[in-house]
Amino acid sequence: MSEMQMRVSDEDRERTAQQLQQAFAEGRLTQAELEERLEAALTARTYGDLLDLITDLPADRPQDSDVVELGSKNANVKRSGDWNVPRRLRVTSKYGSVELDFTQAVIPHPVVEVELDLTYGSAKIILPEGAVANVDGFQSDWGHPSTTNVPSRPRPGVLCVMVVGRAKFGGLTVRYPRKRWFTH
Known about the structure:
Layout: H1 10-25, H2 31-43, H3 47-54, E1 67-72, E2 77-79, E3 88-93, E4 98-101, E5 111-118, E6 123-126, E7 132-140, E8 160-167, E9 172-175
Parallel strand pairs: 1-3, 2-4, 3-5, 4-6, 5-8, 6-9, 7-8
């Protein structure tokens, strides 16, 4: 079976839909073309189907500057507070844990991809209320990713964090901020 006949995921359809909307915003497609292609993208079954919809558009490759790499051998990797979130974040940690808190971050992209490469550490991702996270692309040799109360299906106008990668002996937790009972 060729790659063009392989079945696509919802993520692939969503990515193509975003590319089509970007092309419309740039004036490359008319409203009618956009609607026709979006409908086709959302019902596409194979990579060939999706490719046919965007072959006449400029490729939307993430720029190298869109990818930020964080790493540590022994220390913990932590980002919280007011920080700029790139389109793609690659985090490598051998023995330390990883904590990414998106609740007060500046996030200019509707979809953020977090690629985790963990050996012995675990990762915790804290999302703003209402955001969604898809962890289908993350594999853990020990345990399953935990996404209590966090939906995984992308929704318009809501941050979607795609988590991919693997952990050898660590886990992954994706959650919303804890509710504060006491206020000062």
